[in-house]
Records
---
Amino acid sequence: MASIPQKRDRHGRGMRRPVPSKLFRHGLSRQTFFQDAVADTADYLRSRFPEELGALNWKIEEVPLQERPESLNRWHTKPQTMTIILYRIPIERSASSRTSDPRIQIEQAVVSAAASLLGKEPWDLLDQ
């Protein structure tokens, strides 16, 4: 009796699927984790500084589109629309070398971008 062959890639492994890690709950993707951390931090900043950041908007992109790769930006601001654009991959890559908790690096990037939008230093938003 012939068995039905399993679908495998060229190296003989089965289909790939996400492997849960201790940093990400099962079923929670990196994009979802990143988006939740950005949303929570932006909501915190809006509630803490309603006059200055009440209209804060945010957007997530994978990487910035730029010609010179020697300095990879982690965020970009648009003061006209009170928008911060966060680049997920550069932020996550810088987090892996600095801290064991990726959420801290994401929160730090959001605070830094919001401070840049207002023309302030990041600690000015956290000091009060």
Note: Residues 30-64+71-127 form a domain with the Zincin-like fold (CATH 3.30.2010).
---
Amino acid sequence: MSLETQPAGQRPVGPTGTGYDEVTLARLTADAHQIVARYPQARSALLPMLHLVQSEDGYVSRSGITFCAGILDLTPAEVSAVATFYTQYKRRPNGEYTVGVCTNTLCAIMGGDEIFDELSEHLGIGHDETTDDGAVTLERIECNAACDYAPVMMVNWEFFDQQTPASARGVVDDLRLGKDVAPTRGASSVCSFKQMSRVLAGFTDGRADEGVGAGEPTTRGTRLAREHGWTAGADGPGGTGAEDQTPDEDAPAQGSGVADATPSTGAEQSSAERTEETPADTSPATTTSTDEPTPAADEKTDPAAADTTSTTTEGER
């Protein structure tokens, strides 16, 4: 089979074209073929492929873009367009640890801005900048989806809950000293940016359940519901949910007209197949407006009468 006839996702990429040596290229190619095999179309594998090359280089390099384009039969421009759209893909060397501080609404109110400012001053860097030793890249994050633990900081997308400026500073200091740092939930220690990028490419490291899973603030509602016997239909403690009530057969039906004719979920929706059920179906000229009907096109409106109506209306006001 010639190179031209090989399907996308199975085509080899030469080391001279990517800048990778033969050993690295062979390893990346084997991983890439595993990723592509997950999808019905090779180009759908681009997102995890970008994480794969980022796990090799620490960012999406020119070599990584060329590699992805060659494997997936895309142009480098197409790959670059995706790589520059998402903030998790870095276009310059990233630090070993990405420290992201949530400064969205709730975390900001709870002190997220103060945490970011403290780290920025302490590390001497701003948003999306990296320390000189290459250890930490600092970011502002738009919601870490952990509002019940605000303010939240993430290190390589591992959660550090209910932080303070002092505790956050202690975390980054330990990271720069090479110490094992444990997140609040998840793995027992934070992995490197390259290691996390490989996990995001779909190659699990088996560490997700090493530490604590969902914490008390997240599960409190479920626990209270079980203790009190509440169900989804309950109106409150001791209440009876609407779904548990038996409808009164003698009660008049609520609503009329178009609302009653609305198809239920899963019913026929096509206008071509729908039977005439509403007033608008049987009498298209019917209007639900309380205003006077608009005169027909062939009827002439008396301007004087219109002025009189207008004057009367203003007088009544």
Note: The two ends are 86 Å apart (CA to CA).
---
Amino acid sequence: MKDKFLLWTIKHKPKNVNEIVGNEEAKKEFLSWLDIWLKGKIPVKKAVLLYGPPGVGKTLLVEVSAKQFNLELIEINAGDISSAEIIRKVALGTSKESSFENKMKIILIDELDSIEGAKLNESVPYILELISESLYPVVLIANDGWKPELWQIRNVSYMIEMKRLTTRQIIGYLEKICKEENLEYEESALKIIAERSEGDMRSAILDLQLVSIFKKVGVKEVNLLAPKDRQLDVFTVIRKIIYATTFLSAKTAAEEFPYDPETLMLWLNENIPRFYTTPSDLATAYDRLSQADIFKNIAEKQRYWRFLLYFIEEMTAGVALAKTTKPTYSYAQFPSTLKLLGKQRRVREIKKALLEKIARLTHMSTKKANLEAFWYFLILFKNNEFREKAIRYLNLDKETQEYLINLSNNIKI
């Protein structure tokens, strides 16, 4: 029963390194380095920095290797670390202690480049100390291994690049999953999923699981979903609109939004305060949003459909041109869609608790779960069978169920 609930990235996880798709040279280099440790020796460089785009198997390679060679995996998700001091206490403590089961340890610091600004600069000396003092292999993972702040870590680490997977490689693995799930599929549909994934196997597998809701993976079913990188696209669109400086650039950005205009309005309503900091800019932006809502209501009630153009223009260009000062650097946030006034704090608490459960289930940090798994979870939650299993398996209370139902109902597929 639990297998039916699992995300397919977990359910169809490779059992050994040979089953990991692609990056043969990188796998060979990593295993050669690890083999030195397994033989009781210490390599010249005690750490490896695995780097490359999301979804190519960086974390997977370490996790599968640990299981295959019976190593105790000590995993630290840098994205969840609140301070450099925590890295020091956790990492240095585990690097010198003996394993409870007398196994060799392998220490993994994931999402290294997600540590931001001053916190990263504070963390680097502790990571360097960890590498120097550790009695066990240390693996660091980053999307951008050449981030300037990581130069000292690069100097003491064996750099191994993992590259994007090819469309053919992804199609092959999706076919394998379809066969194991007894799922009817069209190869042309798998090709669309693979191409949209842009070399990201994790994204492709999650997309396949979404399409499986329709009991068949065909071109028609695949095209019912928004294009790949839905959540990333939403974040990007919101930032483009907010930062736009001309009428045309704001409207052009809005055309990239993968859902309906009403959903875009929810996103903007949620995120304007995250970017606009002056009271006058906030007031003007919300006035433009209010005017947009008026135009929408007129169009719907009186069937003056031309007013929908004004609705979109006020919501996008109106909001963008409302600012008189440069917006602050920030990240867009998923709209709660519950009544925002008076409930935002509780909504954040509900989402935080839910993300922690999803993170444990998917073996991700909460930050990665929010960016890469949450949207897929919402889509799957629209399916009654999945919803029932999720409620039982994650022990979701009524409030969390209501929160998820509100969010998932707002997503059009």
Note: Residues 279-302 form the longest helix (24 residues).
